[in-house]
């Protein structure tokens, strides 16, 4: 091939983002299943339950009615109004529906937020361990993710002192936090969130709150940044509490001055969010009782793991506050949790995610269990792991 042709096909440097290592675990799990093995899947972070019946019925009716055209760029008005009502009902805060923007999952919300708030080269703080795409999307957009290492000392979150110290080393333009968080499953209290937002506001650092795991809180109720600040950007999704990962629909609550910018960006990048998914999402709110039953299932799974894993030998774990993740320290058993996860899968047929995906510094000590499956699976996983570690 000619050198010029080869150069034309060379991907850009900013597109050089790492893949998920969990893909290797999933491929190994698939090979075991092809050979007839029964794998307990605790590696992928998604609900096992389907979308609310109300959402599925609304989607069926829309399909039967025929044409699905583009929608308003910021989302179907009825859905934006319904999301605003959700804030009144759940958090007791009035949100103008004009500030609500429907997005293609929270994943698109991050792209829109980062494009709207940051210039190439801007530094944006994220917690480590943390959800890898925060860092990777920032990098792909030419921004600099600044990973702030967290530990038990700060209950695995960024504190105002840590934020300000990082800002003094080199100015930050933004900070993103999630509560409940992935992979840790830890949460910050409303008071801690208020202090962090105040610190960010005081230093002129944009605050982005990933609230995708709201609704799945066990330790204490999750607080929305929308109640604490009108300048914070809130990102949320129908993927987790509403069990709608594949529908690819989420939302943002924006400060009023950013609405028009996001409108222009989303109009150019996507035109609008898939219509069928928006119709289903609006109806999903009628399925809260059904989703609360699913949540109670996670609570039961959490109890089974909190009781069973220490007996099985896994005694060190982060506070299991919310979402459906348990982040366990397995350094007692191995130098590298990637090998641990591989061996555990091969020898017990329980799949979990090695921590290195979430934390390049200390992730090799940890594995993440997702407990969004059934109680029977959780009991069996604990038994299999216990028997394996006690061999
Ligand atoms: C913390 C966190 N934020 C965002 C996402 C993206 O979810 P979605 O794009 O389906 O809304 C995930 C998915 O696992 C996540 O764990």
Poorly predicted runs are none
Structural class: alpha/beta
Bound molecules: pyridoxal-5'-phosphate
Question: What is the topology, as strand order, of the major beta sheet?
Answer: 2-8-7-6-5-3-4
Main beta-sheet annotation: 7 strands, mixed
Rg result: 21 Å
Overall shape: it is: globular
Describe this protein's structure:
The protein is α/β, with parallel strands linked by helices and 391 residues long. Helices cover 43% and strands 13% of the residues. The chain contains 14 helices and 12 strands. Strands 2-8-7-6-5-3-4 form a 7-stranded mixed sheet, with helices on both faces. It has a 3-stranded antiparallel sheet with strand order 9-12-11, with helices on one face. A two-stranded parallel ribbon has the order 1-10. The longest helix is centred in the last third of the chain and has 25 residues, at 288-312. It is globular, with a radius of gyration of 21 Å. The chain starts with a helix and ends with a helix. The model has no long low-confidence stretch (mean pLDDT 96). The structure holds pyridoxal-5'-phosphate. Residues 45, 105-107, 131, 178, 182, 210, 212, 237, 239, 245, 250 line the site of pyridoxal-5'-phosphate. The site of pyridoxal-5'-phosphate has 13 residues, from helix 5.
């Amino acid at each position: 091939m000619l050198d010029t042709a080869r150069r034309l096909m060379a991907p850009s440097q900013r597109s050089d983002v790492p893949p998920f290592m969990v893909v290797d675990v999933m491929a190994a799990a698939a090979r075991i299943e092809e050979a007839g093995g029964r794998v307990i899947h605790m590696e992928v972070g998604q609900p096992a339950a389907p979308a609310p019946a109300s959402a599925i019925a609304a989607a069926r009716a829309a399909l039967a009615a025929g044409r699905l055209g583009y929608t308003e760029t910021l989302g179907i008005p009825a859905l934006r109004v319904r999301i605003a009502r959700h804030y009144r009902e759940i958090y007791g805060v009035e949100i103008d529906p004009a500030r609500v923007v429907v997005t293609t999952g929270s994943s698109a919300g991050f792209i829109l937020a980062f494009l709207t708030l940051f210039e190439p080269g801007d530094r944006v703080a994220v917690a480590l361990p943390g959800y890898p795409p925060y860092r990777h999307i920032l990098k792909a957009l030419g921004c600099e993710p600044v990973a702030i290492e967290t530990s038990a000392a700060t209950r695995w979150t960024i504190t105002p002192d840590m934020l300000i110290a990082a800002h003094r080393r080199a100015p930050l333009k933004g900070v993103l936090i999630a509560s409940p968080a992935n992979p840790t499953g830890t949460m910050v209290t409303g008071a801690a969130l208020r202090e962090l937002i105040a610190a960010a506001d005081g230093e002129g650092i944009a605050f982005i709150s990933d609230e995708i795991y709201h609704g799945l809180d066990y330790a204490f109720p999750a607080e929305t940044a929308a109640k604490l600040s009108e300048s914070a950007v809130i990102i949320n999704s129908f993927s987790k509490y509403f069990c709608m990962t594949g529908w690819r629909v989420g939302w943002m609550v924006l400060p009023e001055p950013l609405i028009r910018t996001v409108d222009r960006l989303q109009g150019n990048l996507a035109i609008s969010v898939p219509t069928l998914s928006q119709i289903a999402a609006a109806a999903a709110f009628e399925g809260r009782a059904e989703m609360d039953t699913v949540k109670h299932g996670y609570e039961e799974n959490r109890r089974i793991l909190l009781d069973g894993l220490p007996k099985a030998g896994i005694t060190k774990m982060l506070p299991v506050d919310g979402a459906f993740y348990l982040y366990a320290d397995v350094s007692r058993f191995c130098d590298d949790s990637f090998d641990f996860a591989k061996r555990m899968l091969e020898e017990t047929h329980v799949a979990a995610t090695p921590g290195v995906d979430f934390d390049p510094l200390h992730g090799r000590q940890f594995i993440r269990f997702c407990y969004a499956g059934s109680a029977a699976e959780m009991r069996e996983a604990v038994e299999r792991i216990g028997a394996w570690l006690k061999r």
